[in-house]
Amino acid sequence: MKRILVVEDDIELHELIKKILKNTYLVFSAYSGTEAILLQEKESFDLILLDMMLPGVTGDKLLLKIREKVNTPVIMLTAVSEKKTISELLLSGANDYITKPFDIDELLARISVQLRNNIPTKEDVSNNLFYKNIELDLTMFQLKKEKETIDLSRKEAEILKLLIQYPKKIYTKEDIYENVWKDGYYGDENTINVHISNLRKKIAKLDNQEKYIDTVWGIGIKLSE
Length: 225
Prior knowledge:
alpha/beta; Rossmann fold; five-stranded parallel beta sheet; 11 strands; transcription
């Protein structure tokens, strides 16, 4: 049975959501951002319903903390309909959102879609990552498909690792530089562009039937669906 964490401080709405979900899913409850953080340290979930306005740690800040550790699908529950706020949530790693008040059937449909589409990252004892038809060996900095192997640079491997760990997240060049180079970004686009271009070429040599890296024009890159 799929495990869903409901993070909502409105008790009446929280209980309604639990009642609707409990016959199909195993439901866990948190009524604040702080409580959700503590619960997440002890449990794993297949999906998180996350309210935007929470006491303690707010929903947007909690989303960032979640994305630091796991790739669990997150659907934001928000009363805010401004496009800028919604865009920021999606860019921060939210998979979907639903605006209050919402239709129960719509909520159930969105949950079903996220659970169906979620592609779990498989990680073996050697710390390898898998996506579609390729395997990323983080020990040897190699890309593998069946019996074929291509060497990657450390930075290329770390960029691909970043994308695979959070396949729904869109990364700006600033995000990539700060996560991979561990330094402040000062507009050095050429360095990042070269590494991404080389990575794309090496992936294509192994598997030219699938697309692995998408360009989101004007924003950055993400892993292909």
